[in-house]
Structure formats: structure tokens, C-alpha cells
Write a structure and sequence with these properties.
rod-shaped, 331 residues, 7-stranded mixed beta sheet, alpha+beta, 14 strands
């Protein structure tokens, strides 16, 4: 009995000796090292994953976002403002609204707040705060109340430096060698934009407030020129017009039968940020009597504007009368 007891004690002692030999001299130091290395690797993977997630959010690419999610989100796909495609180039107001929101989403950026990293020792999960930002589109809508098109809005959005910032606590899981987002639906508020149903011009020429003719021989009461070799037309523009580069062509025509006769067609005119447009057409002779017009065609849509007017030529009649009188006297 005594020998068995001694043998048992020896075996236990021997086993404890082997265990003690396998432990490090400072076990706490080794655990801290593993924990620190694990944290650094976890953070590095998270930063890379957040960058890819941000790109997917900015591009409103739901399929790409799924590549970085540990489970399929149910809400954020519907929240993404995907830009519509229009075969004929025409867009409804609803399409334009979606396009504007897509442009805002395209400015999304992110910053990982590393100091907020939280995880349990050897855990496969963690949380971390990420600040997502997008350009403060309200700065654009405060500047004006009507736009040429969604592209007009976007060109102004690019100049905005202020941002709207939102902080989200994201949950990540390790799945194999990947770190994947577990709560993608929490990011839905990134697409909660207000007042994006903007007002649009029907045409570029909506910025023309008034058209009038002027110059020597012009009579505003009869809308006609008398004895002139020159037409002068003025387009009075709204204050918004000076925000744009105007590109247009104009044509001077005379009503003849069966078709109009085009006396002059300009090349493309590029007018940068005009406050008014003033065009002068001069012939090399006194212009014949008739019904005339000057029309403007722009490069932004298919609308046309212009002015129609009469031309009278009393000099021609007087010359003919003088000639007839001379012939009668000679006879």
C-alpha cells in the first residue's frame, strides 16, 4: 500500500514537472504579445476591408458590397440610389432625383477610428467605429433654385468642400483569411438625402428673359426696319446665365416661296459666362423688302428661339420713281 502511494506521488510529480517545463518563464508576456499581434493583424484587415466597402457604397454596387459581408444584408440594396439608364436620353423627374442622389453617394469617403477597436482575446469578432462622409449637397441647393440638368448639379457639387459626417459602429467577423462586415444594413442612413427633387429648366434658352431688335432704321412699334443694311438683335439673359458657357449657332433668313432663303449661318459661337448676347448682321447693300427672322440654335437641346420682323425699303421705290420721271422728260 505504501509503495503504491509512493508510486502515485512520483507519477504526479513527474507529470507536473513536464507541464512546468512546457510553460514560458513569463506566460503573461507571451499572451500580451499574441494579443498585440492579433490586434494589429485584425486592424490591418479591417482598414483594407473598410476601403473596399467604401468604394462599393460610393458606386452603389450592391453585388460588390456582398463580397465583404458575412451575411446578406436585406435593406441597404434597396436604399442605394442606382442611376437610371435612358436609351433616348430623356429622364423623368423621378429619374433625375435618383441620378442626383447617385452623384451625392459618389462622394462617400471613410475614416477608420482605430482607437475604438474592441475585441475579446482570441475572438473572431470585433467592433470598430468608422466615420463616413459625403459632400454637403445642401451647399449647392442653397446657391440656386433651378438647374440646367443633373449634370449641372454635379459640376457644382464637385466644388463643395464641406462634408456631412456620420459615425457608425461596425461589426466584423473573421471568416477564414477574410474579415467581413456583419451589420451592413446599419449603413442605410448614408443614403438618406433630403430635398433632392430639384427644379430644372425646360431648355437652356429658359435663361433668355427678353429678345429685342435695335439699330438704325428699327421701329419698335411696327417691328420693322426701314432702309437698312444691318440687323442687330439682343438677348437679355437672367443672372444665372453668367454661370454657363454658351454654345450656339444663329441664322438670318428671308421668307421666300416655296422655302425660306438662308442669308447667313454662323459657325459655332462659344460665349463664356455672358450677361447678354448681342449679334449684328450686315449686308453689303440695302436689304430688300420682305419678312425676315434671326434664329438661335443651342448645343444643349433642340430648342430654337429668335425674332421675326419686316423690312421696308423706301429708297428703292424713290429710285425707281426718279428713273421713270427722267425717262418721261427725255421723251
Amino acid at each position: 500500500m505504501g509503495k503504491k502511494l509512493i508510486a502515485t506521488v512520483l507519477v504526479t510529480f513527474f507529470t507536473m514537472s513536464l507541464v512546468s517545463c512546457s510553460l514560458p518563464a513569463d506566460p503573461n508576456s507571451t499572451l500580451e504579445t499574441h494579443s498585440r499581434e492579433n490586434r494589429i493583424e485584425f486592424e490591418k484587415n479591417i482598414v483594407e476591408t473598410v476601403g473596399r466597402i467604401t468604394d462599393a457604397l460610393a458606386e452603389c454596387d450592391y453585388e460588390d458590397l456582398l463580397e465583404y459581408c458575412s451575411e446578406t444584408p436585406e435593406l441597404i440594396g434597396d436604399a442605394m440610389p442606382v442611376a437610371p439608364e435612358s436609351a433616348d436620353g430623356s429622364l423623368s423627374n423621378t429619374d433625375k432625383k435618383k441620378m442626383v442622389e447617385n452623384m451625392i453617394a459618389g462622394t462617400i469617403t471613410s475614416r477608420v477610428e482605430k482607437e475604438t477597436f474592441k475585441t475579446e482575446f482570441w475572438s473572431e469578432e470585433c467592433t470598430i467605429d468608422v466615420t463616413f462622409s459625403y459632400k454637403d449637397y445642401n451647399q449647392v441647393t442653397l446657391q440656386r433654385d433651378v438647374f440646367l440638368n443633373p449634370g449641372d448639379f454635379n459640376s457644382r457639387l464637385l466644388d463643395v468642400t464641406d462634408t456631412i459626417d456620420q459615425v457608425f459602429t461596425l461589426k466584423f467577423k473573421k471568416v477564414g483569411n477574410k474579415v467581413l462586415l456583419a451589420n451592413a444594413d446599419s449603413l442605410v442612413p448614408l443614403y438618406d438625402y433630403k430635398n433632392t427633387d430639384l427644379n430644372y429648366m425646360r431648355s437652356f434658352f429658359d435663361m433668355v428673359e427678353r429678345i429685342y431688335m435695335t439699330g438704325e432704321g428699327w421701329d419698335q412699334y411696327t417691328d420693322s426696319y426701314t432702309n437698312t443694311d444691318t440687323f442687330e438683335i439682343v438677348l437679355v439673359l437672367s443672372p444665372n446665365a453668367s454661370d454657363y458657357i454658351w454654345e450656339y449657332v444663329y441664322r438670318v433668313s428671308n421668307e421666300t416661296s416655296p422655302n425660306w432663303t438662308h442669308l447667313y449661318t454662323s459657325g459655332k459661337i462659344v460665349d463664356k459666362y455672358p450677361s447678354e448676347i448681342r449679334i449684328t448682321y450686315t449686308a453689303d447693300h440695302i436689304i430688300e423688302e420682305g419678312f425676315y427672322c434671326i434664329l438661335f440654335y443651342n448645343y444643349y437641346d433642340d430648342t430654337i428661339i429668335g425674332y421675326e420682323f419686316d423690312v421696308f425699303n423706301t429708297l428703292t421705290s424713290e429710285t425707281e420713281n426718279t428713273s421713270e420721271t427722267s425717262e418721261t422728260t427725255e421723251g
